[in-house]
Amino acid sequence: MLLWGGVASVVLAVVAGVWRVLRGLLHLGGRVNEFMDDWAGEPERPGVPARPGVMERVSGIEERLSRVEHELYPNSGGSLRDAVDLANQRLAWLCPDHPDEEDGPPAPPLTS
Predict the structure, then answer these.
(1) What is the model's pTM?
(2) DSSP string for 19-47
(3) Which residues touch 82 (CB under 8 Å, ≥6 apart)?
């Protein structure tokens, strides 16, 4: 009887250990599956909108950054940088650094 009790305990311990390993592997597999769904994105389903994948999101970020970069450098007069430069020129004309000078910088064009 003592021998059978020891065998049953060992068998139950092995089964419990195997169950814990399998449960951990199943949990890990589920997490990997969720990660892959997030990475690749998911198509639209009835009642659920499509979710873009990582590469599609990165592409959208790059497009937005190129639009922001366009505003940071002078171009044909339509960027934010051009507007700031024009405002600085007008301010320098209105408020010269040396008020005793009669000739300030040339007046900037009055364009809108």
Answers:
(1) 0.47
(2) HHHHHHHHHHHHHHHHHHHHHH-B--BTT
(3) 74, 75, 76
Q: At how many degrees (to 10) do helices 54-72 and 80-94 cross? A: 20
User: How far, in Å, CA of 110 to CA of 82, rounded?
Assistant: 14
Tokens 């002078």 sit on residue = 74
Tell me which of 41 and 19 has the higher pLDDT: 19
| 15 touches 31 (CB < 8 A) | no
Tokens of 25: 């592997």
Q: What is the mean pLDDT of the chain?
A: 86
The answer to whether residue 99 scores a pLDDT higher than 80 is no
The DSSP H or E segment spanning 55 is helix 54-72
**pLDDT classification of 43: cutoffs 50, 70, 90:** confident
What is the helix, strand, coil percentage profile of the chain, to 5? 65, 5, 30
- Give the pair of three-digit tokens for residue 98: 């040396």
